[in-house]
Inverse folding.
């Protein structure tokens, strides 16, 4: 009985270590793939369109709603202390340093990350990735690296869009609806937001971009090797759910770590 | 040219099941596949036919033993050497493995785009000529989902042959095809082999039809390998499991013929 428990513990440990090792190597290979020829420019454009342009609407609405809620909540909290003038500063700092990068990354994970995982999972179970291997075409360079580059370019840009729309939402709620002075809103924002704050948000968005592609594409790419995932279409659906959960948790954990390190 | 194209020496492969038990697929097997000929690998389900193909391609690693391709040992090779090895192979997968988001033309052109320095017009000319040869002209702008089973196989064959491989591996090439289409596909294999001169390895359970193509037959059973120099020779085997295999796959008529002999 005791031996069985130890054996199960050891076996789970081995699976975790193997999985981590595989994913570590995978990250290296997809980064290397970005620098290998021939470069797939048209695929990069397609992915930029899918990850970047395709996410514009969801990012716009999430940012507008978040900014407006922040404006309202911020107003009610600050009003208690007679500090409504700090609203611009509170909204912009919260968005630029935390909510912008995190919510953008979570939205991109839900929209593009899940699609990425399912696409690669289906390619794996229908032997399309094996076919690439057999043609001596590097599947990392061919399939994943354009996705990584596209996310690396578009996630920070989407974050900037989130910040701008969010601040505009905060302005509408705080200034237009609640009557905060527009001058103090912008003055507070200008005085409190530093280059360092913007840098922190930008670094986060780059890191999240890599995390999304690494985890979501990796789960789909290795769907056949994931213990307990099962087989066929069910394995793809299971692994896609897993990828979205894992990617979202990683974004939240890395958000804390990066804030703790860089602030 | 080396007379032996592929050689297995004492190769063993086993899988560990979820419950911890070992399933032996290949138990120290040795056999060789002659160059320029057709070898059929036969055997029941789960006997290791597809594993054998994956070992040859380096998609899977053997537990022990040595595998040689054209005289070069491929055991444990990785990276650029593995890539170089794969340039010698063409593979037709069981489900054709066409890229479902690409058209037939894009599928067939992919190896040329990725692995050669040919211009777009040269690629177009070569691909269209291959498609014409395999009677797929007019279907080049269709997606795999719009093709019949036989057309998918032909498109997969066209893609696999673009780089004129030294060895062609066919994994259950006629699964899901009707008898007429099966016959057409076999004729295409023979025709393209005559043109290119590749070594053909066919994993199939389409017995005895596939034997029409075979120069050599390898039977996998319970981790062991039995090689026969011709499809006829398999019928003379006295081993009970081979006799059972012949009886199940070819029927009584062949056994009656044996008895007469």
């Amino acid at each position: 009985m005791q031996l069985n428990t130890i054996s199960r513990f050891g076996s789970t440990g081995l699976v975790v270590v193997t999985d981590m090792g595989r994913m570590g190597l995978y990250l290296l290979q997809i980064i290397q793939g970005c620098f290998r020829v021939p470069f797939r420019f048209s695929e990069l454009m397609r992915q930029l369109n899918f990850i970047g342009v395709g996410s514009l609407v969801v990012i716009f609405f999430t940012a507008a709603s978040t900014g407006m809620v922040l404006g309202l909540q911020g107003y009610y909290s600050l009003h208690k202390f007679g500090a409504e003038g700090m609203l611009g500063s509170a909204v912009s700092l919260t968005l630029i340093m935390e909510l912008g990068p995190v919510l953008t990354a979570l939205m991109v994970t839900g929209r593009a990350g899940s699609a990425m995982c399912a696409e690669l999972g289906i390619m794996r179970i229908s032997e399309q990735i094996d076919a690439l291997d057999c043609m001596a075409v590097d599947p990392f360079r061919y399939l994943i690296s354009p996705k990584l580059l596209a996310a690396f370019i578009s996630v920070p840009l989407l974050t900037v869009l989130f910040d701008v729309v969010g601040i505009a939402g905060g302005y509408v709620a705080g200034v237009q609806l609640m009557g905060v002075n527009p001058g103090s809103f912008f003055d507070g924002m200008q005085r409190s937001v530093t280059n360092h704050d913007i840098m922190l948000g930008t670094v986060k968005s780059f890191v999240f971009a890599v995390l999304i592609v690494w985890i979501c594409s990796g789960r789909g790419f290795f769907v056949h090797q994931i213990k307990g995932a099962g087989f066929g279409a069910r394995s793809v659906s299971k692994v896609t759910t897993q990828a979205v959960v894992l990617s979202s948790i990683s974004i939240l954990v890395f958000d804390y770590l990066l804030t703790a390190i860089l602030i | 040219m080396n007379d032996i194209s592929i050689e297995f020496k004492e190769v063993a492969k086993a899988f560990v099941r979820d419950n911890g038990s070992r399933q032996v697929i290949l138990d120290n097997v040795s056999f060789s596949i002659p160059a320029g000929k057709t070898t059929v690998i036969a055997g029941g389900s789960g006997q290791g036919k597809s594993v054998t193909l994956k070992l040859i391609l380096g998609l899977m690693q053997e537990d022990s033993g040595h595998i040689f391709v054209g005289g070069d040992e491929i055991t444990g090779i990785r990276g650029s050497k593995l890539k170089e090895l794969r340039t010698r192979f063409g593979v037709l997968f069981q489900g054709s493995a066409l890229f479902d988001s690409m058209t037939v033309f894009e599928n067939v052109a992919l190896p040329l785009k990725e692995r050669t320095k040919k211009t777009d017009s040269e690629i177009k000319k070569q691909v269209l000529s291959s498609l014409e040869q395999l009677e797929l002209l007019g279907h080049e702008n269709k997606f795999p989902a719009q093709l019949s089973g036989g057309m998918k196989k032909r498109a997969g064959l066209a893609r696999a042959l673009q780089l004129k491989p030294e060895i062609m591996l066919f994994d259950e090439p006629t699964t899901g095809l009707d008898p007429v289409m099966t016959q057409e596909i076999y004729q295409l294999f023979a025709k393209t082999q005559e043109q290119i001169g590749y070594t053909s390895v066919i994993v199939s359970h389409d017995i005895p039809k596939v034997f029409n193509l075979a120069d050599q037959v390898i039977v996998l059973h319970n981790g062991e390998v039995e090689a026969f120099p011709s499809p006829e020779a398999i019928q003379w085997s006295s081993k009970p499991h081979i006799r059972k295999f012949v009886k199940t796959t070819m029927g009584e008529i062949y056994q009656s013929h044996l008895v007469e002999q």
Chain A touches chain B through 17 residues (CB under 8 Å).
